[in-house]
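Journal club side-thread
Mid-discussion, someone asked how the predicted structure for our own chain would compare to the paper's figures. Pasting it here so we can look after the session.
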Amino acid sequence: MLAKRRAGLSASSVRTIYTVLRAALDVAVRDGLIQRNPAALVKRPAVEREDGVTSPPSRWRRCSRQSAGTARSPSTV
């Protein structure tokens, strides 16, 4: 997993690779192809969370006014 991270993949991509690999190896254990899942010995890679950026209420009001009457506007539903 470390090699994938060093290769430039994002932490999220490395975590996805790990998750898919572990699931595939779990199936191999269940089917009797291997005795235990070696991926179970590896700590699941962490993904740092970032705080989301929100728009101020004034922007939401402006967008709401601009979309009023359009096909995707909540007021037309």
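Post-session note: The helical segments are 2-6, 11-30, 57-67.
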